[in-house]
Specification:
The chain is an all-alpha fold. It contains twelve helices and no strands. It has helices at about 5-20, 30-40, 50-60, 65-70, 75-80, 85-105, 110-115, 125-135, 145-155, 165-175, 180-190, 210-220. α1 (about 5-20) packs across α11 (about 180-190) and α2 crosses α3. The longest helix has 18 residues, at about 85-105. It is elongated, with a radius of gyration of 19 Å. The chain starts with a helix and ends with a helix. The chain binds iron/sulfur cluster.
Length: about 220
């Protein structure tokens, strides 16, 4: 690992430990089912706070695949209705439970191709489960992630960077160990500090090296 990558990792890990959303319940578990259900609920939901009570109630009622596979769709819908898209979500959750039970012995699989074969599971959720539940070296590239890396490494000229460029950057940077902290640190930095419209660069560990921040300061000084 080059010095540049090492510095990046040290900065993001240190920031995440101090400021990251480490107390979220799905961040404190490595249970694949709990992580998968959290990611399914977070998908197309704007506020994490909206998901918290629903997630807790959902796991209380359906603590494992077996219970989810036996659930009535209408009962699932009642619990998750505040998240929106409740018809689609409740159908998917039910299908998910049934498929995990019938094809994966009531376990969440640990292979990418198996994960993306599940209802409602795409590239991001599959990688999130692989990284957070199975400690695999996979990048979790979402909009926050792309924005942070794009601003730091490409600045304003190529903003936002293409999906291919973001993925390449992420794969070059991800460490062999502790990829969970790496992914979640970048995602949280994007959600809390490097916001889409007004990044709070003065609070960011990358302020001095970030091309976007340097360009902004130079533009003000002109
Ligand atoms: S320095 Fe500013 S623009 Fe760059 S990553 Fe940090 S918050 Fe975002």
């Amino acid at each position: 690992m080059g010095n540049e990558n090492k510095n990046f990792l040290e900065k993001i890990s240190c920031w995440y430990k101090k400021h990251g959303r480490t107390s979220l319940p799905w961040r404190k578990t490595s249970n694949p089912y709990e992580i998968l259900m959290a990611e399914m609920m977070l998908q197309k939901t704007h506020a994490v706070e909206q998901v918290l009570p629903v997630y807790k109630e959902f796991l209380r009622k359906y603590p494992n695949v077996q219970r989810l596979s036996e659930a009535e769709e209408i009962e699932i819908k009642k619990i998750i209705c505040s998240l929106g898209l409740q018809n689609i979500r409740s159908r998917r959750f039910k299908e998910l439970g049934v498929k995990l039970k019938s094809q994966f012995k009531s376990k969440v699989p640990d292979e990418y191709n198996d994960l993306v074969s599940l209802p409602g599971v795409g590239e991001y959720i599959a990688n999130a489960v692989l990284c957070m539940a199975f400690n695999k070296k996979e990048v979790m590239v979402d909009a926050n992630f792309g924005r942070v890396l794009g601003r730091i490494f490409y600045g304003k000229e190529e903003y936002p960077p293409s999906k291919n460029k973001t993925w390449k950057l992420a794969k070059d940077l991800i460490p062999n160990n502790n990829c969970r902290q790496f992914n979640l640190g970048i995602i949280d930095l994007g959600a809390i500090v490097c916001k889409p419209k007004s990044p709070k660069c003065e609070l960011c560990p990358f302020e001095e090296v970030c091309i976007y921040s340097i360009q902004t300061k130079n533009a003000i000084m002109k």
